[in-house]
């Protein structure tokens, strides 16, 4: 496997990796003949993000016939390859990623331009671990709610909340979307400033709400795709359209905590999901957030919550996003 | 108790925000007094503040297009709230290009100052961001703590040197000593001095000018005073620096009154805002 990205796409690649580092600690690589996927999931399995890079993104996209390849490594190691974003654009002409299965390494080679005739090659050999395909099980088609907007809208929205803020509640009704900060602790409520922002449906490119509901989730993860990297995605690649799909497949009681429990045996994330997807002309970024849905008055408490382990599916089929 | 107000002018909004940002840099909490004509941000000199006190007065008509207040009672038509200025600062920060900003007193889970900004949007319907800032209502019996400070019986009053210069000087001095002596006379001369075992540094300023207070009491006092005689006070350098660094705009007038060995009273005047800061002297 041998991929080469050139020019401004090197910076896009770097930003993708930095963006993913805000969510998870391990970077999952997966490659088929059709694309290269960079994925991550956070430690509590409540947020998932994925970049799909198509062959068009690369100058060279060589996957050995019939070979698909999968590995994971600490995201910090990969970040170290693309250290300084500002100097990347000026100095790096080309980035080559090669898979070296014999040494269990992925080799990143940066070709740097210098003033003189002699170039500079920076080679990073990163050891990887074998892994299973990291998938999020989510059916876009079954989402009762679909919101699509320009990324600027998301960026402007997130700005009103302090970066240190932990949790937000996203609510939708047929003509509006609300975002407000969520304070769990009783005592905090009297101290904390509560911020609420609402956007009318007219601000979205698509606003289809068939099920009015609310989600809690962690703001840091929502802002990962909206923090500086995607702003530049707008400049570097046209057609960046974030889509937000909200679903509540089984409306359960909202007694669960906002972050799924950390112990491995405990029930897993609630199956109420918010899925957002950003498309670029030559690549795609998707992220998935889990949150708890707050009950509407009509829901009884007798409904039981059906938990399912929605991540770490073994499926190799990229049928569902 | 009722309070409703609205700002629609961008310039007023920016100016108000800068004032709030200045207050934010001075202390974590302060008292906001609302009267029919004015808003006051007050810090009373308590041990917790290190004895510094502050009085910031804004003329409401110069900021708000709408302003309605119903105070605690008809004879005490004002409202006194304790608030964290940082919250107000944060709420105002993202509202700088708002079409309008409404500030009102509300009761949510606790008494709040609610700031609602109507923001420009991509559609015909505006975006509205609302911030509920929790406040504590200060009962009338404690209002005496937050009265307008009286002008101290100063020995010398002098105009300050340019703010930027003074900030730089004091900032460098803080690395050498924790205390600074400020001294001035009625001939427009001011010195900033620090002294340690190893080093003493003095910065001299001349031709600053002395404000003509024209008040009977101080005039007679200043007439009898030797114009070259210095009045001085020794201050905690951090307190002076904190005040100087917090200033967001150059004031149109900046003055300093010194009560010999007792207190330094700084007065910054802008068009619509006046700010007074009292720093007690240390031994």
UniProtKB/TrEMBL annotation, chain A:
Concerning Pfam families, the annotation shows:
Rad9
**MF terms per GO, please?**
double-stranded DNA 3'-5' DNA exonuclease activity
List the catalytic activities from the record: Exonucleolytic cleavage in the 3'- to 5'-direction to yield nucleoside 5'-phosphates
User: Can the keyword Nuclease be found in this entry's annotation?
Assistant: yes
Could you tell me the superkingdom of the organism this chain comes from?
A: Eukaryota
Q: Where in the cell is it found?
A: Nucleus
Q: What is the protein's major site of localization?
A: nucleus
Q: Where is the composition biased (Polar residues)?
A: 253-266, 298-307
Keyword set for this entry? DNA damage, Exonuclease, Hydrolase, Nuclease, Nucleus, Phosphoprotein
GO biological process terms on file: cellular response to ionizing radiation; DNA repair; DNA replication checkpoint signaling; mitotic intra-S DNA damage checkpoint signaling
Q: Where is this region: Disordered?
A: 251-270, 298-321
Its Enzyme Commission number(s) read 3.1.11.2
- A cellular component term (GO) from this record? checkpoint clamp complex
Q: Does the keyword Hydrolase apply?
A: yes
Q: What does this protein do?
A: Component of the 9-1-1 cell-cycle checkpoint response complex that plays a major role in DNA repair. The 9-1-1 complex is recruited to DNA lesion upon damage by the RAD17-replication factor C (RFC) clamp loader complex. Acts then as a sliding clamp platform on DNA for several proteins involved in long-patch base excision repair (LP-BER).
Q: Which family does it belong to?
A: Belongs to the rad9 family.
Q: What is this protein called?
A: Cell cycle checkpoint control protein RAD9A
What is the protein's species of origin? Clupea harengus
Q: What is the lineage of its organism?
A: Eukaryota, Metazoa, Chordata, Craniata, Vertebrata
UniProtKB/TrEMBL annotation, chain B:
Localization annotation:
Cytoplasm, Cytosol; Nucleus
Q: Which InterPro entries match?
A: DNA_clamp_sf, HUS1, HUS1/Mec3
GO biological process assignments: double-strand break repair via homologous recombination; meiotic DNA integrity checkpoint signaling; mitotic DNA replication checkpoint signaling; mitotic intra-S DNA damage checkpoint signaling; nucleotide-excision repair; response to radiation; telomere maintenance
Query: Taxonomically, which superkingdom?
Result: Eukaryota
Sorted keywords for this record are: Cytoplasm, DNA damage, Nucleus
Q: Pfam families from the xrefs?
A: Hus1
Instruction: Name the GO cellular-component terms.
Output: checkpoint clamp complex; cytosol; nucleolus; site of double-strand break
Q: Which family does it belong to?
A: Belongs to the HUS1 family.
Primary role: Component of the 9-1-1 cell-cycle checkpoint response complex that plays a major role in DNA repair. The 9-1-1 complex is recruited to DNA lesion upon damage by the RAD17-replication factor C (RFC) clamp loader complex. Acts then as a sliding clamp platform on DNA for several proteins involved in long-patch base excision repair (LP-BER).
Q: Could you identify this protein by its name? A: Checkpoint protein
Which species expresses this protein natively?
A: Clupea harengus (Atlantic herring)
